[in-house]
């Protein structure tokens, strides 16, 4: 969470911070699945990994398209797109 709130200038670092949060959730799912001796936590962790991969691919694709149009990936300029 600190990576998102403290670093608001670089969008790539924001995406990396989101990925780290999702990996932490996966770690909790796998460890609790091992402790409970149930396979459902590991299956759910695979589902979260799939969603994280799709999120990063779509986010980077949108970032590349935005960079081609504006020739900058500054978050301050992205905020101008709201209206």
Could you walk me through the main structural features you see in this protein, from its secondary elements to its overall organization?
With 83 residues, this protein is mainly α. It has one domain: Helix Hairpins (Orthogonal Bundle). The chain has four helices and no strands. Helix 2 packs antiparallel against helix 3. The chain starts with a helix and ends in a 5-residue tail after the last helix.
Helix content: over 70%
Mass-distribution shape: elongated
**Average of the residue pLDDT scores:** 80
User: How many β strands by DSSP?
Assistant: 0
Biggest β-sheet strands, sense, barrel: none
CATH topology: Helix Hairpins
This entry's quaternary arrangement is: single chain
Count of domains = 1
Per DSSP, what share of the residues sits in E-state strands of 2 or more residues?
under 5%
Query: Count of helical segments?
Result: 4
Q: Class by helix and strand content? A: mainly alpha
Topology:
Blueprint: H1 2-6, H2 11-36, H3 40-70, H4 75-78
Helix pairs in contact: 2-3
